[in-house]
Amino acid sequence: MSYAYLFKYIIIGDTGVGKSCLLLQFTDKRFQPVHDLTIGVEFGARMITMDNKPIKLQIWDTAGQESFRSITRSYYRGAAGALLVYDITRRETFNHLASWLEDARQHANANMTIVLIGNKCDLAHRRAVSTEEGEQFAKEHGLIFMEASAKTAQNVEEAFIKTAATIYKKIQDGVFDVSNESYGIKVGYGGIPGPSGGRDGSSSQAGGCCS
Amino acid sequence: MFRGKLKLPDKARRGFPDRLGSLVAGLEGKEDDMGAYDSLFESGEELDIILPNGLDLAKERDYDFESDHCDDDSVGGVCERLRDREDTMGQKGSDKHGSVSVLEAIVADEKRSDLEYEFSQKEINLEKLRRIAGTGLPDGGGLRATAWKILLGYLPTSRDLWEKELSDSRQKYTKLKEELLSSPTELTKPPDDASTSDENAEDDVAGPLKRREISHEDHPLSDGKASAWRQYFQHTEIAEQIDRDLQRTHPEMKFFSGDSSFSKKIKEAMRNILLLFAKLNPAIRYVQGMNEVLAPIIYVFSTDTDEDNAVCSNFCFSVLKVFVFLKANHGSGIQKPLCHSQTFFSFCIFFIIFYSVEN
């Protein structure tokens, strides 16, 4: 399917915080209470529409365990957005955020959009990290913040789409050189007027902004 | 559930109907094959037709075999059969459901007797075993478990040494478990009276607590590298992680999950093995995915137990050797092989299949 843009995402965070479940909820709209653990890196994709343009999100879901860091680090490069996930019921996953962020800052391009997600917010009775703390951390580090639940799907769409919206805005503002794929953005055929562009209605208007 | 419960390989006879046929052959073609297997399972227990798809590995072996075969008469027979097998594989595109299944069943049967013969020898021919195993192992009778043990180097090729080797490594494992998996309270505890004072301490609130000598290094707050406590706390982290991962090790299989006492025992055994491995290999520790590698091994081997706790002791060393092997072969730590070794992960597919059929 054609798209105006392709955004590459990466999902990071400690093991067991629900990274793969968030992805599954977003791409398949379902929840798997016990997800297989991720070894190395997995991958998902979904189309969304933004400003009447079809945008493809290509999402790289990484393994959370420390031993896999050397592998996941190589996926930061070329990601336009990152979802940094912690588990609101496990304090240590919140405490490790700084080290994840450091990794991201070090290995990703500086304009990468990072969204902080406090997952499992349906388990409010087991909460170990308050919403305010999450907000505070995000504010300090200039991240977008939201609490989500892969189980109830609360805020899952929003998280991915808000990230896309931020990236999209950055493109509009001319932050990215979209012809350079190392920013994690690819201009697709759906975005420029051409022989294949006629299939979706949005393509004709998309051409102007991304040339 | 465990039809293959046999004490010694030489007792393995054909009392076990080989319902799975040559399912084993599907090793490499897992993705394409899953659909086919699913439909097979739905059709009931009589799984007589198995599609030997994607036998890349097997073919490779066969070609190897062709190049250096027939120096030896006994090998020649196997060679013939393997060629037959290859022929049947060649037909699979045009005639998937007809004669292939029959031929496959025959091949599996012959393979079974080959293996049984091989295992009954005083000195097992490793090269020959490798060749037979290279195209998949038949089910039942603990043949797979025995073959894996030998191929992993856990059992020596000389049969006479098996019993001794088994009891030796079981002892070794039990000892390691005592040394490494017990809490420092027990380790640092002086043997006699101190132990009772410890237990009384909590009940006896009114009186002064009895004190006992503690070495400079070994107390719960010690930062010393040699402190048993420090190590203990470090390892609790690993243990917690292992526990969490065991919860998501094949949750769809009753063998590994659920509240039955059996699956709890399996989980406990896996936990011990993984924790012990982490402790014995501080540079590698526990890496996610080890549970996935261990799972099929424990599954296959628990069809071959001859005593209740053998699951724990028997297989620790096999799995350790697998990891040592992987590490040695890649040099760059465990991550790479775990990510890339397709062959290894296809074992998992294996036992999912076996499990579905056995239950």
From TrEMBL, chain A:
SMART domains noted in UniProt: RAB, RAN, RAS, RHO
Pfam families, sorted: Ras
Topology in the lipid bilayer: Lipid-anchor
Keywords: GTP-binding, Lipoprotein, Membrane, Nucleotide-binding, Prenylation
Domain of life: Eukaryota
CDD domains: Rab2
Cellular component, GO annotation: plasma membrane
Localization terms from the record: Cell membrane
GO molecular function, one term: GTP binding
SUPFAM superfamilies: P-loop containing nucleoside triphosphate hydrolases (SSF52540)
Function: Intracellular vesicle trafficking and protein transport.
Family per record: Belongs to the small GTPase superfamily. Rab family.
Protein name: Ras-related protein RABB1c
Organism: Erythroxylum novogranatense
Automatic annotation (TrEMBL), chain B:
Region (Disordered): 178-225
A molecular function GO annotation: GTPase activator activity
GO BP: intracellular protein transport
Feature: compositional bias, Acidic residues: 195-205
Database matches in SMART domains: TBC
Biased composition (Basic and acidic residues): 210-222
PANTHER family from the UniProt entry: TBC1 DOMAIN FAMILY MEMBER 13-LIKE ISOFORM X1, TBC1 DOMAIN FAMILY MEMBER GTPASE-ACTIVATING PROTEIN
UniProt cross-references to InterPro entries, sorted A to Z: Rab-GAP-TBC_dom (IPR000195), Rab-GAP_TBC_sf (IPR035969)
Pfam family, one: RabGAP-TBC
UniProt domain Rab-GAP TBC: residue ranges: 138-359
Identification of the protein by name: Rab-GAP TBC domain-containing protein
Organismal lineage: Eukaryota, Viridiplantae, Streptophyta, Embryophyta, Tracheophyta
